[in-house]
Structure formats: structure tokens, C-alpha cells
Amino acid sequence: MAGVDTIPLMFVVGIVLATIGLGIYATRLSRTASDFYVAGRGVNALWNSSAISGEYLSAASFMGIAGMLMKFGYDVLWYAVGYAAGYVFLLLFIAGPLRRFGAYTIPDFAEGRFDSSGMRKLAVIFALSISFFYMMPQMKGAGITLAQLLKTPYWVGVFVVGTVITLNVILGGMKGITFTQAFQYWVKMFAISIPIFVLMTVFGHYGTQVSTGGSPESVAPPITETATYKFPQAGTLKMTSDGTIVPETDVKAKVNTYDAEGIVVKKEKVAYTGGAPVNLTKGQLVTFATPVKVQLNAGMTMPNYTKSEKWLHPFGPFTSKYVNPADPVSVKWVPLLYTYSLIIALLCGTAGLPHILVRFYTNPDGRSAKRTTLLVIGMLSLFYIFPAMWGSMGRNVIPSLYANGGTDLVTILLPTKLSSPLWGQIFSGITSAGAFAAFMTTFSGLLVSASSAFAHDIYGRILRPEASPESRLKAFKVAAAGVGLAAMSLGLLVQNFDINMLVGWAFAIGASTYFPLLLMGAWWRRLTKSGAVAGMLGGGLAAIGSVLFTMAVDKGWIAQPASGFLNTLLVQPAIWTVPLALGLMVFVSLATQNQVPADIRLKMLKLHAPESLGLKADYITD
Amino acid sequence: MTKMGLHSEEFLHAIMQKQLRLSAGIASVFIIIIAVVPILNLFLPDVMNAQFAFGLTLTWFVLGLAIFPVLIALAMVYVRQSNAFEDEVFSMVDASTLPSADVVAPDAIPAPATATGEAPTPTSSEAAQAAH
User: Which domains, from first to last, does chain A contain?
Assistant: First the structure.
């Protein structure tokens, strides 16, 4: 892997140029302001569902699930299922009413449903915070992938992807990105499926990979040749045998020693000297304080490799991370709690993502919104079968990724294990292009949704309601440039943060704020403004607070709570924050029934009566 | 069947109840399918972790492959029934209470959609802009 990989570079440049080209092409077709925001509402169902799927499949889906599954095994299948199944909730309760109401953004819905401009402001704040939290991991994905492929510094990837997409959005608006997103769904689908079929003919099919990776004989493969691995900040190394490592430079680290039951028996802080060999014993966990290159000597087995049966079976290392091994109650129930909370976050969080919800407005009516959602469920279901195939094959074919926690790159690097270096590079190029398509589509969708929150909600509705369509369009472009720059700067700050932590944050906030607002707002006519505010603030702050707490623990600022249950509830808060938000909405609404809008029956009728009755009134009239 | 006025309480109640019943029914099937998997994993590990097909364990087969066609099937059932209901609604409502194409409803900002359910015609400002 010396030097730049020319063929993957060509594929990445190709996908970036195709994105720019499609954006420019679409600009010529995009004339009016509503074209710009919502693709003129004339986008057909297949086109629109490809675009929604394209926008939704992010770095987490294309790289993250496969990498996490390789690392943790069965439990990670829930991510694939949850990401797809969230759309079933969206279809059953939200897609039709939201489209019929004629609201372009959730803030439009919030204001229209409660006759309150204050609700719009609150909804805008949550839209922006979810968008920014979700943009950061995309930036990070771009940065590390480019760093891996092209040996560029981290900031280059962030800057290249950020700039291309920001310009594309400024030039083409929603119509521009609808073309691009739809095209890129098919790029990603091709890139995740075709190469794995080729790889399966060489290395064995899905079932073989899963049963080999999970067979009792599957033990950490031995390191036969001494090699150097780069560990990031807070990178961990869990010894699977006794062995010797050699840090290349001076580095501080924490070393935990465990007994046979997995209980910590010793915690120490150490300072390693560069070049000096360190002897470690099986089961020790080293956490490096700063990024460092470490030589792993021949004779030891691959660190961080999960035990076979724990990888294959439910309630493995992912969901039992916070189990107290000494307590049988904790061992049995904490992983179950973690699993359910994760499922709730994924199911409800999907329905709370502002960049996805905005797309329902591009359907001409509620009926086509439902048809679009159905197609999206089909397209996503097809896609989400594949990441687990990559992850399980990666476990057997490229176990060296375990050594320094680099499993997120499995979709990029697995094809290079083909015996033909040329085909290896070509298929690696295809998956790299797919990964780039993933960062670019999700980032542009978030950029449009955040920029229209500024241009449409803040500028057009709050600051200058009398603004002409042309000046709103200008505001959109200015906002897009500003948001793009802000996202790039934030992206530079999160190099050391875990992608999944940031994605989880966005999902938790969405699930605890927008989902209850939309569900209750559409189906419960007694929901009042105060009830909605209480629920969104209560659920949102509880979710944000939990994740902040987890981060502080992760950084060592706060001691980790002793209880496995409490830890799980803080790391995966949806199981209590979503019911909290719903409960607050019900209680506060019942106490403030005098706030129910006078025309609530008409509002409910608009939400639920088919368009054929002629009640529809769209918010964007320009 | 007596026809209901478009703005009558009973009409709103009827359409909301019917649609909610459909959505909640399918949602409960869907939630039960999803929620039962972890329970079975916990209490019947021998069954769920037994080799099932293609070298996959039963639970891996369910979560990694089989659940996706089920999601699609549930979504198809919902869309079909929901659309059938939308067609039915038209026959429930008293036609004289519908806003007609040339009378703009007081709450509707742009012209209401045509009764055939087609995409709305461009509003005047949209048409004016397109002409630029």
C-alpha cells in the first residue's frame, strides 16, 4: 500500500466530476424559486424515491455498518434493519399527512399546526442542530477516506468534498441535487453489490463467511510478520495473546488488566518511550492518549479480534459493553435494554431527520408521497442486505483491520485482497466512488435543509416576510455558502470523534423532538402549542444531555456510573427520552386545552382528507 | 349511506379513525415482529442460534435477510389499503360541500388542486416567473 492508489483516485475524481456535471446540467432546468427549493413538485415517484434513498445512504450506511459488523458481529444487524424500517413508521403515520398539509419544512408544519411563529423558531433550532450534528460525521468520513486512499492530510478530504457540494447546491438548488442524489443512489447500490458478488465467488459466499467467522475454531489470526500500525487518538488495543509491541514515539497510555471473567483487576497509567519494546499479556486493554504508530511483533495474535461465539450470537460485545460481569442480572438484562433502546432510536430517529422529511414535499400529493415511500423502503431494503456481507467477509479475509480499529475501511480495502492487483484496485475504486457518493449526497441534502431553514424559515418568514422570491433565492445561496463553510470548520474539529457517536446524536435528537411533534401533531387534535414545546424541549434536552454526559465520560471528565443499566440509558437514551417527549406533550396539552387553535378541525381535515377533495393549500406560493 | 358534509365533525372523525386504525394495525404487526426477535434471542438461544440456511443461524437469517421482504410486504399492504380508502372517501362526502374549481376556499392560498388529483397547475406568480 505504498504511494497513491491511482485507480481508486480516478474513480473518486470521476464521481466528483459527475456530481459537478449533473449539478450544472440541472441548473439549466431549474428556473423558479420553487424549482430551487423543492424541484418544482413535479418529480416523479421513481426519480424522487431514488433521490430520497440516495440522500439517506450516508457514510454510516456505506462504510459504518460493515465496519461495525466486522468488529462487533450480530448486534450490528439492527442498524441495517432499523435504518430501513424507520421508513415504515414514516409511511404509516407521517408521509401522507405531512404532504397533504402543504408544509415545505417541519418549521412550516410547526407554525401552521399551532398558529404560532414561536413554534417555527423552536423547530428551526432543532432542524439546524440535527443537520449540523449529522454533517460532521460526513465530513469526517470524507477526510479519513481520502487520507487512506490518496495519503492526503485529513483536512484535504473535508475541504474537497465540502467545497464541491456547497458549490453544487448553490448552483443547482434542490432540482440540481435531486438529479445528483437519484443518480448516486444507483452508484451506491452498484458499488455495494457488484464487488461483493465477485469477492464471494473468490472467497466463499455469505453463509460461509458468517459460519467461518463465528465457528468455535475461529480464533484471532496470528501476526506472522512484524508490521507497523497507525493508531488514532484514543485508539485502543485489546491483546488477544501475550506479545510485544513497540511504539515508534513517546506516548502516554492507560492499561486495564482483566481477569478470566472480564472484570477489571488493575488500571494503570503508563508512559511508553519511543522505540522501547513493551510486553503485554493476553486480555490487557491499552488506550493511547495521542495518535501513535505502533509496531506489532510477529508471534502475537491480532489484537481487538472478537471471540467467535460472541461475534456470531446476539448480545455480543456491542450491546454488552456496559455489563457488569460480576452481576448476573446485569449480564442478562443490560444487553436487552441496549438492543431495545437502539431499535427505538433508529425507528423513530429516521422519521425525525429534517433533510429526509423535506423531500416529501417534492411529491405532488399524499398518494404519491406514499408511493414514493414504498419505493424507498424497497430500495433501502435491497441496499441494507449487503453491508453485513462485507463485514462478515472482512472478518475472515482482511483481519489486519482489527489491529488498530480500522474496520470502518473494510468496504474500501477488502477488494484489494483479490489475487489480481489490477482488479483489486478497480473494485476498490468502485467502492471508493460509492463511499464518496455517500458523503456527498447526505451532505448536500443536509446543506439544502439547513440553508433553507435560514433562507425560507428565518429570512423569509421571520426576518423579512415581504421579501421577494428573488431575494429569498439570494438568501438561500448566501446561507448555503455560510453553512457549507461552517460544516467544513466543524468537520475539521471532529477528526478525533467517533463517527457513530455523532450519527447517534443526530438520531437521538430527531427521535426525541421531531418524531413526537409530527406523530402527535398529525394524529392528536388536542395537542397544544405548550404541549408540543414542553415535549420537544424535554425530550430534546434529555437526549442532548445524555449524549453530552457520555462524551464527558469518554473524555474522562466525569467518572463512569457504576450501574450498567444507567450507562446504557445514557449511551442509548431513546428508550426513555421518546416516551418522555410523548408524555410531556400529552400532560401539558391536557392542561392547556384553551390553546387549541379555533380552526383545528380544518387543520385536521387538511392533514387527513385526500387531495381529491380539493382542500390542499401549499405554503410556497412563489 | 347518508353523505357527510366535508366540514362536518363526523366526516373528520370517520376519515381519521379509519386511517389511524389501518396504520396502527399494520404498525402493531410490524412492532411485534421487530420486538419479538430480541426476546426470542434471550430466552430461546438454542433455537435462534441453530444453523438454519446457507450457513446462517436462524436469528442471523431473520435479521440479515428475511425481515426485509416482510417490511416491503407490510408497506405494500398499507399503500394498497390506504389508496382504496382514499377512493372510498369521495363517495362518503356530500358533493355540494366540496370546494369547486372556480370558488377558492377562504383558507387556500393558491388555487386548490383539481378534482382529478393531478398536480396543481402553476400559480400565477410561478407562471410569471417561468416566463422571465
Answer: 6-204+337-613 (1.20.1730.10), 220-304 (2.60.120.10)
